[in-house]
Amino acid sequence: MISKRISHLFAFAMITSCLVIVITCWGFILINVVYNGWSVIGWEFLFKNPKNGMTEGGIFSAIFGTTMVTFISCMFSAPIGIACAVYLNEYTKDNWVTKLIRASIRNLASIPSIVFGLFGLAVFVKSMGFGPSILSAGLTLGLLTLPILITTTEEALRKVPSGLREGAVALGATKFEMIITVLLPSSLSGIFTGIVLSLSRAAGETAPILLTGAAFYSRYLPGSIKDEFMALPYHLYVLSTQHSSIEQVRPLAYGTAVVLIALVFFMNIMVFILRSKHQKKFYG
Amino acid sequence: MGNIKLEIKDLSLKLGTQKVLKHIYINIPEHSVVAIVGPSGCGKTSLLRSINRMHDLNPKAKLSGKIFLDDEDILSSKLNVVDIRRRIGMVFQKPNPFPKSIEKNTSYALAIAGERNKTKISEAVERTLKDCGLWDEVKKDLHKPATHLSYGQQQRLCIARAIIVKPDILLMDEPCSSLDAFSTSKIEELIVELKKTITIVIVTHSMQQAQRISDFTAFMYLGNLIEFDQTWKIFSGAKRELTQKYVAGKIG
């Protein structure tokens, strides 16, 4: 009896300590970054471009670049990813071809991001002639985030009760009409989650954009999606390791990290709000 | 018997290797309510779902035989299944309103059929909801989500949704099994009202319900149609022993 209680307590202690470790790490990073970076954050930092070899000025071009490239990756991956998930979940039969497709999607998710970068360099930058640009980087990030999007969307589609599908079909809807009018609207909140996860991932990736269009330093904003751009994660890398006077720009690097974290956090919050609004509306 | 509206002829259904329905013959007269009764797993629901070809969704299902709706074989691959389902509506066991507004739910079939005229749609919605006795309860909330209604109201909404396109036949798969007594009686009143214009086939577990609302009763057992007759005959003087035992509650 006692040994049972002890083992129970032990297990509980283990689980709790795991939780504590995770939260401590997370808290430490957050506090450290915000503490060191807070002082530089201000109007100028957020809305001015870097100047004097990145030792002064702001990071607006990097914020702008990251936002643009994330947006393009989403425009590219969301339609393809959702269509792919719908196809896999609604149209395919459960046979070895489908299993193979699913397995390759899972494998795609585990490919190192630098490899995606190389692929983007070879295909978008060189073969398709987009050059190092927002477009190339956006498309590369889009590819990178496709597996996340497909898996989460499929999960969301699977959760839609079969009664809703049958209900629509029984009212004379074709399968396609059923998907557009009932299935997708019903799984919207799950799809939102997938989009946000992939957005956050795309915003934080460095290796793929390094090879496909991120600029070390540019004084001007990109004029079109065929131009090179600055991005937050790459800027952070440059400021912390590549800059000639690293000590001097350290606060700027921390500030950049704060902005990057805040950006991703903001996106998550936005979607969380959208999602709970949608759920509240229909399922109280 | 009046005109035969629906004629089921030698209908068999296989799901994989399992024989679910075996050589079913039923003639359903126009403007009548037909109850299908029988123990769980006897093929009641499978029979019902054959009538509007819901088995098309299941690649393992194999139907044979014929079902005539006004002398037209609806199992024929020449007919468009979407048109058939527009003529044969269906209400399911669990209310399944779409996550849309009450109005959008009611007018769904019209929208799918390509009706864009807003006044026509709202007129049809009002008329149908009135027919289903739901109008006074929801007229102020037409734009609110249908998922917020009570279960009984949701089910009546699902009936409204199915009859807005004026189908010839309405199939109901145990529509009251998840409802309380009050909602059940409302739906039963509705069924009796609807029968003036629509032929209704209803699967039910409740002997009382079958007796209250149906004109004809089909008793099924292990995929066979054991007996099909006027309801009062089934319940007070069935010809087959199995039917007598079932309605007396001796097999279940």
Features:
heterodimer; A: 284 residues; mainly alpha; MetI-like fold; 2 domains; two-stranded antiparallel ribbon; B: 252 residues; alpha/beta; Rossmann fold; 6-stranded mixed sheet; 11 helices
Task: Give structural notes.
The complex is a heterodimer of chains A (284) and B (252). Chain A has 284 residues and is an all-alpha fold. Chain A has helices at 2-37, 43-47, 60-91, 96-109, 113-127, 134-159, 162-170, 175-186, 188-204, 207-212, 232-242, 246-283; strands at 50-51, 56-57. In chain A, a hairpin with a 4-residue loop joins strand 1 and strand 2. Chain B has helices at residues 44-51, 81-87, 102-106, 108-112, 118-131, 135-138, 151-163, 181-194, 207-213, 231-237, 241-247, and strands spanning 4-15, 18-29, 33-37, 61-69, 72-73, 88-91, 169-173, 199-203, 216-221, 224-230. Chain B has 252 residues and is of the alpha/beta class. Chain B contains eleven helices and ten strands. The longest helix of chain B has 14 residues, at 118-131. In chain B, a hairpin with a 2-residue loop joins strand 9 and strand 10. Chain B has a domain at 4-94 and 168-247: 3-Layer(aba) Sandwich (Rossmann fold).
